[in-house]
Amino acid sequence: MIYVIATTPMKPENKDAFIRGHKACIAETHKEKGCLSYEGHVSVNDPNLYVVVERWETRDDLTAHSKAPHMKVWREYSADMKTGPTVIEIISDAKVQKL
After folding, report:
1. Burial of 16 by CB count in 10 Å (0-12 exposed, 13-18 middle, 19+ buried)?
2. Helical H runs in 1-99?
3. CA distances from 91 to 5, 17, 36, 69 (A)
4. Cα separation of 76 and 89, whole Å?
5. Which pLDDT score, from 0 to 100, does residue 92 have?
6. Does domain 2-92 have CATH number 3.30.70.100?
7. Residue limits of the ABM domain (predicted)?
8. What is the pTM of this model?
9. Within a 10 A sphere around the Cβ of 44, how many other Cβ atoms?
10. Distance CA 28, CA 31 (A)
11. What are the extents of the domains in the chain?
């Protein structure tokens, strides 16, 4: 099993649109092969930090997810709503990888 924690700093003025937009991405991701869970949350420590917590059956499933058409749409939609890059941590039984 693969776990992913992705954190994105949001522009305060775009926070609501960012969260609304991500709901469509969540719905499509839940349909993907190997998706065990995929949810977005606002950080309890920083109201402008969006945290996505994911669980995938395999690394191949996660790789396919990153190439899914709805992810391309999401990246384009959200690009101007962020104050910095998304930090992605991939966690497996063997190691933690930070991208």
Report:
1. exposed
2. 15-29, 59-66, 69-78
3. 8, 29, 14, 24
4. 21
5. 83
6. yes
7. 2-90
8. 0.89
9. 8
10. 5
11. 2-92
Segments of the chain with pLDDT less than 50: none
Distance CA 31, CA 17 (A): 23
Q: Which helix (H) or strand (E) covers residue 67, if one does?
A: none
List phi, psi (to 5°) of 93. -60, -30
Residues 56, 35 contacting (CB under 8 angstroms): yes
Can you tell me which residue has the tokens 């997810």? 65
The answer to whether residues 45 and 86 touch, using CB atoms and an 8 Å cutoff, is: no
88 token code pair: 């992605």
